[in-house]
Amino acid sequence: MLADWLRASSARQHPRPNNEPLPGTLKCNIDTACYVNSNKFSIGACIRDADGGFLKAFMQTFEGQPEIREAEAIAMKETLKWLQQYSINVRGY
What is the pTM of this model? Predict the structure, then answer.
């Protein structure tokens, strides 16, 4: 059984493991954190090049206690606005 799994897993082709960006492109990771006790939530984003090199990051804090999905939507919207400042084209995968 292990031999079958090893054979199958080695046969799989992963063009970009770990969601690495294609050469010549950038990757932007976005995250949120909710602080219920202080009635705040924060968002952050980090841009890296295809080699994983750090390029830019930003962070912003808001008042309120949104549901996590709403906080993530706000993070996406604010990150897209931030990327526009640098004329970075966005393409989802």
Answer: 0.72
